[in-house]
Amino acid sequence: MNGSAHNAPSVLEMTLKRGPAGLGFNIVGGVDQQYIMNDSGIYVAKIKEDGAAALDGRLQEGDKILAINGQNLDNLSHSAAVELFRSAGEDVHLRVQQGPNLQNGPTSSRADGDCSSAFGTWTMYTVVALAVIAAGFMAYKRLHVNPRASRGPF
C-alpha cells in the first residue's frame, strides 16, 4: 500500500419510527431537481432538531437515500420520492449511502412531507434574471458604441 486511505462510501440500513413531525429530515434531489450535477439521487439536506432522525443519530446531512421500505429511489422525480416518504407508514426502513457532509446545496429544502418546489423555482428565476441582465447589457453595448469612434476621424 502507498499509505493513502481510500474510503468507499458505506451503506447503512436503518429503521426510523415516524414521530409527530414526520421522520425529521428534509430531502433534495430527483431526476427533475438534481442536487449534485449528473446525479439524480435523493439526498438528506437537513436533519431537524429533536426529530426521529436526529434522535436515532445515524442519518447525516449529505447522506444519499438509496431505498425506502425496499423501494429503490433511482430515476424518481422529487415529488415521487416525497410521495414514497409520505406513504411509507409508521416504521420506515431506509437504505442509506453515507457520504461526506455536502455544503453546496440548499439549506431551506423540502421536508420529507412537503412537496413544494421552492428551490427549483428559485433557481429558475435566478437563471431567467441573469439572462435578462445579460441581454440588456448586450443591447446597451450595441446601442451605445464608443461615441468618438462612430463620428469619424477628428
Automatic annotation (TrEMBL):
Stretches assigned to the PDZ domain: 13-100
SUPFAM superfamilies linked to this entry: PDZ domain-like
Location in the cell: Mitochondrion outer membrane
A GO cellular-component term linked to this record: cell junction
InterPro entries attached to this UniProt entry: PDZ, PDZ_sf, Synaptic_Scaffolding_LAP-MAGUK
A Pfam family per the record: PDZ
GO MF annotations, alphabetized: protein kinase binding
Protein name listed in UniProt: Synaptojanin-2-binding protein
